[in-house]
């Protein structure tokens, strides 16, 4: 017999009832590993423990060790959080128990030498360990040096190691529509078919769902939770915690200070008011200040936190537009606002519960809404662990020396105006810079964002008619046909803008409804044919994922490795709209007075420090030096302003957890599709294509937000800009070159 074969010790099997094993199973599976067992799974475990551990299952602690090993293998082999008795779950559990039984001796699991040398469980090799002959045990370790690859059984399949295989583009019209249920304190997925003509009650539900979503997020914040400690030790903590008051509860409490959460809106009388689920009240923002100072936008349609004092009316008005109508309507009096702020944001890890790392560095799921499948690609608790293992293999995380040779980039171009002659040269320059790279270094995805035509498509014809638009996309097809290697090895995603057909036929370039559907096939047939021709040239033996062109909606979402990596793509000139509709707060007077003076003092200091010279050459040199210093100072000031504007925009959108926090008359929303506009949980990254703002790449609360700006900046003749996003680092950078 081989030395590695275990020697079998005598065990007296017993009949172990499942209720007797339940407390131990709960402690091991649920408390330690965050797993849930069903009745049928508990029956299988009780039978297995009784047969293989015998009478010493409790006294000698054999059962706890065995159950702990089963839980580790279940997680390593990609099992869900529930040891379910469905077909897949039952087959996986039976396979684990068979493998475990073949590697047990005396009620204990025997760890072989090659398994001990790898990290993780003794049975990470799955069924292969049990079925392999003892003499071939050493070869198993040589075949797969990464234990994670062997546990997932994808190490030998090169097609599964292709990152593009795990990319999925999700249209807004195909995405799950989760709605927060205030009574269940969980999310419900709407299964009823959506309609473009829903009942009028759906408009009220749209705002109610937004409020409930932010309200529950706010209550989960530590600043709004009173610690459950002794009254003496927690006195200071209780004073620092915040408490929300509903608007209806302000009645009869004049002169008291309160913190309100509600929707900013304009009353029928034209006054600024705040509305929640219980009523509305008029706001007095004469002495209000924004928190932080000039750090976010505040406009009607946004949900905000308002701190101030309520003052009742001494004489109640009659049945006028701004009169009192009690609970459920506009209550009398005014709320004198001291400060206004946005609801604090919540990180993605806190929302999904994936915020704890185990001893092996793997993410574990606890709390949050890990069970909810927000996008239709699987929930965090069901697929998150397995997908993170695949991500490590595909992106080779932990191996910096090899990361340079993997495909991990996404290229983003916005405002690709095909009717502008210079766009053809700009696209050619960008595509040529990537087509010359090796296949291992090519980008995974090219995202081209509209407007694809500079002026709105009008069905009446003319220079902006549908025939001309079709010709513009034919030009794009001819450009793409010059780079067959890119078409064969990358995914091209096209996201429309407000000027693109057919939505612009009735909006004439104004704000269309969101979400909006993809560009019709009538215009894109030639582009799709270019991809078909390029893929036909690929040899049949090639296992790589073929290139494809996906015409998606606006907004669209890109899922990479299931629920692990989410990228939101949204095209909207939101900065322009915020500047038009935002509320103006009086700035701090000291800052306004000091800033111009400081700037003048620096210039004057530069003038006085220059030595006086009567020579002509010295004067020229001094003037040139002053001009250079002035240019540097101006560019630095402009950069700081642009950075501040980008941070202000990003904070506003992510705090609102919504892509379009505006009233319906400013930015219409399809009522039944409103849940797809929510940014909850926060995406991993977001492309906010705003042509009215300068390009930026900013990270806020773990969400990396990028704006590629215009492909060809205004006033530029030969400058091209785009964004390059690194999937492994989860960071983007603005690229700028001349063509």
Automatic annotation (TrEMBL):
One of its GO terms (biological process) is DNA-templated DNA replication. It is found in: Nucleus. Residues 121-157, 342-362, 590-643 are annotated as: Disordered. GO terms for molecular function: DNA binding. Residues 626-640 have a biased composition (Low complexity). Its main location: nucleus. Residues 345-360, 602-625 have a biased composition (Basic and acidic residues). Residues 410-696 form the DNA polymerase alpha/delta/epsilon subunit B domain. Pfam families: DNA_pol_E_B. GO terms for cellular component: epsilon DNA polymerase complex. Keywords: DNA replication, DNA-binding, Nucleus. Belongs to the DNA polymerase epsilon subunit B family. This is DNA polymerase epsilon subunit B. It comes from Blastomyces parvus.
